[in-house]
Amino acid sequence: MTVRFRPVLDALPAYVPGRSSPGATKLASNENPYPPLPHVIERITEAAAGLNRYPDTNSTALTQALAEKYGVRPEQLALGCGSVSLCQQLVLATAGEGDEVLFAWRSFEAYPIVTLIGGATPVQVPLREQTHDLAAMAEAITERTRLIFVCNPNNPTGTAVAGAELVEFLDRVPRDVLVVLDEAYREFVTDESVVDGLTLLPRYQNLIVLRTFSKAYGLAGMRVGYGIAADPAVAMAARQTQTPFTVTSVAQVAALASLDELAEKQLAERVAELVGERRRLTDALRELGYAVPESQANFVWLADGDPAAGGIDAVTFAAGCEQRGLLVRAFAGSGVRITVSTTAENDALLAAARELRG
Prior knowledge:
Blueprint: E1 25-27, H1 38-47, H2 60-70, E2 77-80, H3 83-94, E3 100-105, H4 110-117, E4 121-126, H5 134-139, E5 145-151, H6 163-172, E6 178-182, E7 207-212, E8 225-229, H7 232-240, H8 249-257, H9 261-287, E9 299-303, H10 314-323, E10 326-331, E11 335-339, H11 343-357
Parallel strand pairs: 1-10, 3-4, 3-5, 5-6, 6-7
Antiparallel strand pairs: 2-8, 7-8, 9-11, 10-11
């Protein structure tokens, strides 16, 4: 006899991380190209001496620091092993067999995975011009809808919906349906029409905003994400479905060190540099004939399509980049996501793109 597994595993898509290869330049995982700040590394080193002890499972100090930073109550916060962990915790808290979880597609590839693991049914609404079609998403809401993911800026296309559109959408969502506004790339947003989701919390009690230390803060290896909910009951539900001790003591120390005044100042400088490189990369790719939607994240998107209209074949383009020592993220049939990196690495990508276009 063999062990019996849940039938859902037969249809469960595997999460595919950006690959690494010795000697290759990795532009596939939306990572910050810069290491943690020196004083953050010092704090991490000091904290390692206490690894024989369990971490504070409530992340008390970090929760308090985040509450002070954003002017909210500590009970509105929930922390997780990256924001993706919170996505799964919130599905487990709201949806099960017979329920629906709604999201745009293509969007963050973990959404269908965490939905199916929770036993719920994923409902995908196609993007319109590489951007969330919020009107269509509102039409797709049924009496079975329990949770809606809105990734803004969207991963992998980098596009963002304007605040007016988001408000109009939220007004149409029933108040007993949880909206998870995934703002993992919020720090890179420069378009003033894109609203900061935290400003919407007083108006929508069914809203929770997710953020992370993985991207702008350069702590992807530490795995610290957090959610700020309008209703403390939502944050409590996320904490109830959390695996104990999921945010390590070292990760908590690293995140705390990244919130001090010096770190925030240097963070802003690094983000500004990456935003400038994003602009340069976008403009240069467009000059080469590629159709590049306006990104508000730390990556750019090249969509599958007719080369005459600026499109590519994702698999072929990614393979061509790999032959030139560059790893980008291909989504077969959809497009390629390219992380914005240092000037030198972006130049190497542009040289490859020029050859592949030719």
